[in-house]
Design a protein that fits this description.
The structure is a single chain. By secondary structure, this protein is mainly alpha-helical. It has one domain (2-89): Winged helix-like DNA-binding domain superfamily/Winged helix DNA-binding domain (Arc Repressor Mutant, subunit A, Orthogonal Bundle), CATH 1.10.10. It is built from four helices and three strands. It has helices at residues 2-13, 18-42, 48-55, 59-71; strands spanning 45-46, 75-78, 86-89. Helix 3 crosses helix 4. It is elongated, with a radius of gyration of 15 Å.
């Protein structure tokens, strides 16, 4: 609920409208993905749980960011499903 309230406040504070809000959301996403890549500097592999706890985001958001990094060729998923899945830097 805290995140929803924060996002609602952000949306209301952007007087520039939807375009500026979308730009801000995209910037936030890129910053989060950059932080995930920073994690790889200290760890050879990371899990969804690592990303969730370090970035304080939901599991679904962590999976989405990791999937995007995989599509961009910056990370590789090892394993198919479950608690044994982890990601490594490409």
């Amino acid at each position: 609920m805290k995140r929803l309230s924060k996002e609602k406040d952000e949306a209301e504070s952007f007087a520039g409208g939807l375009e500026e809000y979308n730009k801000k959301v995209q910037e936030k996403k890129e910053q989060a993905k950059a932080k995930i890549l920073e994690i790889f500097k200290n760890k050879d592999k990371i899990s969804n749980k690592d990303v969730v706890s370090l970035l304080c985001i939901s599991t679904a958001t962590a999976v989405r960011y990791l999937d995007e990094l995989e599509k961009e060729g910056k990370a590789k998923q090892v394993g198919k499903a479950g608690k044994y899945v982890f990601y490594s830097k490409v």
